TrEMBL record:
Pfam families tied to this protein: zf-TRAF
Ranges of residues in domain TRAF-type: 96-164
Name this polypeptide is given: TRAF-type domain-containing protein
ZnF start-end (TRAF-type): 96-164
Length: 246
């Protein structure tokens, strides 16, 4: 199964980033012949007309699409290529720094405003490329994350280290979102008997009855879940009011 690195969205790895923790000799055989970055995922072009070379999958796909499937090494059709499991395993085991920290170090001007407010947050992750997805999804304080209340309508995104501030400073907004959704569920529940009656008049089959009973169970489960979330929101909101009056 081909490994996908969501943090780079299928593009080749930035060679300057990889060289922060590796020597040029370690990666010279894994450079994409088109973009000259580290091939991701690596393919091997093995046409009989020339020597075999390494290329990134997205780069090759884009090149073939734009050049009528002619080989990027020599101008012949019928370009042949294969996945290289050995190269993939080697690249997966390369040690790298956090890509978000690399971006921050490479673009200091973009973080000038952040520095004025407080000390710049840094990520000290150093590990293998194959472990990066888990790091960015669970631990990295520089990675962008969605608000916990996205399912209720909050589309805010921010670095993980700023999420707590967003949640605390928008308690009432999030509480209103949960309340609105809960009211909608309650409305759905109140009108369900009438809608169910109309459906049964139209088609009173056992399959319809089964589906209605199943939907009722799902609705009850979701309503119970939202009640729990609403209770948590109310508790947090009430606690914040007490703290502000102290």
């Amino acid at each position: 199964m081909e490994k996908q690195y969501s943090f780079l969205q299928g593009s080749c790895f930035n060679k300057t980033w990889v060289l922060q923790s590796n020597q040029p000799e370690q990666i010279k055989h894994y450079v994409c012949l088109l973009c000259e970055q580290i091939a991701n995922p690596p393919l091997e072009i093995n046409c009989p007309e020339h020597e075999s070379l390494t290329i990134g999958k997205a780069c090759l796909k884009q090149y073939l699409s734009a050049n009528k499937n002619f080989c990027p090494i020599q101008s012949h059709d019928g370009c042949r290529y294969i996945k290289s499991k050995a190269m993939q395993l080697y690249i997966d085991d390369l040690t790298v720094m956090c890509p978000k920290q690399f971006e921050q170090d490479s673009s200091p001007s973009e973080h000038y405003e952040q520095e004025q407010d407080s000390a710049m947050i840094k990520c000290d992750f150093k590990g293998k490329i194959k472990d990066l997805n888990e790091h960015l999804q669970k631990d990295c304080q520089l990675a962008l994350v969605n608000c916990w209340f996205k399912p209720f309508g909050c589309d805010h995104q921010c670095p993980r280290h700023k999420l707590q501030y967003h949640l605390i400073s928008n308690l009432k907004f999030h509480f209103d979102l949960v309340t609105k959704l809960l009211d909608s569920l309650q409305h759905c529940k109140l009108h369900r008997p009438e809608e169910t009656g109309q459906l049964r008049l139209e088609n009173e089959t056992s399959a319809k009855q089964f589906n209605e009973e199943k939907n009722e169970m799902v609705c009850r489960k979701e309503e119970s879940h939202f009640h729990i979330i609403l209770f948590v929101c109310l508790s947090i909101w009430f606690e914040s009011k007490i703290i502000m009056t102290m």
